[in-house]
Amino acid sequence: MSVKLTIMKQMEQVAQEHGRILAPLNDELELANCGLDSLGFAVLVARLEDALGVDPFTAAEDAFFPVTLGEFVKVYEHGGR
Amino acid sequence: MAGVEAPSLRAYVANAPAARFIWDRAAAARFTDLDRGTSLNRQTSLGGRLADLAGRSVLLATASQLTTALALIELDGCARRLVILPPDIEADHLGAVIAVAGIDAIVTDDGSQQHAAFELPVRVSCASPMVPLEERAPVAFRTEWLLLTSGTTGTPKMVVHDLAGLTAAMTHRSAADGAAIWGTFYDIRRYGGLQIFLRTVVGGASLVLSSAGEPVADHLARLARHGVTHLLGTPTHWRRALMIPAIRKIAPRYVRLSGEIADQAILDALRAVFPQAAIVHAYASTEAGVAFAVNDGLAGFPAAFAETIRDGVEMKIVDGSLRIRSPGMASRYVGTGQTLADADGFVDTGDIVERRGDRYYFAGRKGGIINIGGLKVHPEEIEAVINRHPQVRMSLVRPKQSPITGSIAVADVVLKSQVEGLNSGQIELRDDILKLCREALPRHKVPAAIRFVPSLAVAATGKLARRQG
Lengths: 81, 469
Prior knowledge:
The complex is a heterodimer. By secondary structure, chain A is mainly alpha-helical.
């Protein structure tokens, strides 16, 4: 499964568990408007670490937070750089 | 505190009605046997050096619990001060303990180099089997018993007890006490285990101890062979014992838990294995002493306990934290300016309780809180829910750094039967546990991730090893 597909599946899973409705997912979607709140994102990042073996945010030297879903996926595709 | 006419521990040995033993894996110490006319009263484990230890501040640094037990019986009333070194003491802390407690003698059963470096005026070997002793010095001291507290970080703190306080919870002796064969998973060099050792001596019973490095299955087999009737462990000890088939060989009539929160799952599991036994969970701490025992088989404790004075024990709850004033509490810390008790003489245990209906439940430790985006979570509360799942043996909830909320709760879970690899059955099980959590807990307390692990680290205290994160 591609990194992008894994992320999207996990987002759906977390949204469902948290009783949230996800916006239609595309690269331009702003994360702030995707339907997950900060707790949902914290859970998502923890789940993705289990699924993909990396937490690029905690591993990063400098804090970098993506704005769009496309940027979020890229961070994972580049393994934390 | 010299010259006080208080009963010493040895007095309880001399008055025993029947043959009594303390066993470990290697040896059996007979501390009374009237038929043979021998008793610890006429024998010594200290090789005739008892007089050299009189009035001194003695460090008891032993490898074996059995020699610890024998030395304690002899030294109470003889030493001015006794410091019981727990087995897991870090070498770095040894010097501080010796300095702070003013140690001027050491009693040890091993030639380990750990304490050989410290120059002390008196060094005495203790050993089992014992040798005959002609004459015993009279009891001259109300010995101070110094115990190390079980704090997880930093230099250990020491608190001062005496025999009267340590045995304050043992006033209700039953006639059956004398026939009891006690066992303990809990090391007798720690407060919880020490209570059982003292109960054995004071109550006229016998005691089965574990040996260093002994596998739990072997320990259980020995407990069965000696016909253990009363057995103590932490909930973690018991969860581990329940994973070992040899548990079926023992049939204690009294099962006691202390040292950690006893959740409903472990109480029910013990009830299922020992349907005839009294299952009792006790609340005690090194600083506060024994506060109460709960014997209705339910987690938590009746609110009435906190509203009345029972056996001299008083409780109050301040900012959710349980405070205790009791005849069994320590008198002070040694070597720190810290005061043990508040202005009213209550010890703050740091254990957080929550009232639901007519019962209080333990929620966790004051310092163990996980802060999830500003919402506070006690790991123990989540573990109690996970442990309710029929396939879960035990669990540990820990904080994990999160870039978004600061921390998040993740759970390591040990299953009752191991399944290798992450197969579809495990994914289903993980979802099932998460579902249970979602039904029972608010959203932020549901673990973000669940990992199945073969085992969990257990500290030498017999409690789950929690790292502060």
